[in-house]
What we know:
Blueprint lengths: L1 H24 L3 H28 L28 H17 L2 H20 L8
Amino acid sequence: MKAEGWLFAVMTLFFAVTGLIYGFWAREPAGKAILTVAFLMSGLVALFWFVQHQRLGGGRAQDRKEAEIAEAAGPVGFFPARSGYPVLAAVGVTVFALGLVFARWLIVLGALVLALAVAGFIFQYRDHDAG
């Protein structure tokens, strides 16, 4: 987590320098606000990673230079097979959007197809751990 903290600390420094330079020369407030928010948010994430590193004491293998690759290996999870539900969700969203333009009954049809696709996504592997 130390590496992640340093990555976001460098981002924070970049946004601080860029924000100061931009704030000195720019005459519009939107860019200044965006760079300020980017600076604050990247600083928040950097602080989070540094606090997590201190809390866990560098317990991850990725944080130790002498660690072996095998130490970071964990259990291999479940990888789902092919699924038709992404295509069904895309069709549902497309029909819903066409309904916004052409006819209200297409909105209902698109919402129904999209609801079926989402339900399929949710319940597709409900019996996976039962086997």
